[in-house]
Every structure is written in C-alpha cells, then in structure tokens.
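ok so i was messing around last nite and threw this chain in just to see what happens. nothing serious, just curious
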Amino acid sequence: MAGSVLIIAGETSGDLHGSNLVREMKRRDPGLRFFGIAGPRMRAEGVEAVFRAEDLSFLGFAEVLRHLPLIRRVLRTMTRLVDELQPNLVILIDYPGFNLRFAQRAGRRGIPVFYYIAPQVWAWGTSRLKKMAERIDRLAVILPFEENLFRQHGLDAHFVGHPLLELAHDDTPRELFCARASVNPD
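result:
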C-alpha cells in the first residue's frame, strides 16, 4: 500500500505508543512514510519530525497561553502540509487540545482521521464527544469500557488493548518492563 501517514504525538506517552505503532505499521508495509509531530522514540523509528513533541508539551493554562503564537503556527504549518502532501491517513495520539482542532482541519480536506488512544472523556467530562464524533473517522481505545461509551456517542470505536499491558508478561523482568515503558524502576 506504500503511502504517507501524518502522525501527531505531543506528549511523552504518545511518543512511546506512537513509536510502537509506527514500528508495527512499517513491519506490515515497509514502504510507508511517516511525518508529523514526533518525540525521540518516534524519530528513532523513522518518523520525519516537522516539529519535535518535546518542544510542544506544555503544562497548565498559563504556559499554553504563553505559547499560543507557537501553537497556532504549528497548526497552520501542519494544515499546509496536509494540503501539499495529501497523506493517505492522519493518526492522532492523545494530546486532545491540539489534536481535536487538527482533526477538524484534516477531515475537511477528506483525509481519514484515526485517533489512537482516545482522550479520557470519562475522566474530564463528555463535553468533547460531539466534536470527536464529527471529526474522527475511527477511534482506538485502550480500556474495555471505553468502546461502548464512545459508540453510544456515534464514534466508530474499537478496543485494542492497553499498550503498556502488552509489554508486561508474567516472566518479564521488572527492569526490562520499566525500560520498555519508559518508567523509573524505583
């Protein structure tokens, strides 16, 4: 199928999960080209970083407000790249403040939008569900109850399992699991 995929992960956890997803997709189709917003793990898997995730990870309202000009520039640049490069697919990983806005722009251009690791609406409220249903073509959820919750609100949601649980096996040494999951073993 060789084509291109625009992928966005704006947080450390998204970078970890995105790197595993990219690795698996390349295993199945080595000709795929990935570009977008990527952290060090995704870049190590060959994702061409238009922007580095670690430069766009902001905590708190004040920090987001202070970086608003940068965030807007990134949104415009990524939208322009969709127009110029016409990727076959957009994959968004968590990072809902940015990704839900970008999903709308990509969807308007007819590019399928796949959201990997859904925002936890059950934790911060369901106010975004309507927007998600309008902007996302398919949603991968990592907790079993999320599939039904999102489907009740019109989303094509599929339970795919929790990526960190996939790393852990009863016989996996603690140090190895912690290294793979990017967590401190202490």
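not much to say yet. The CA atoms of residues 75 and 98 lie 8 Å apart.
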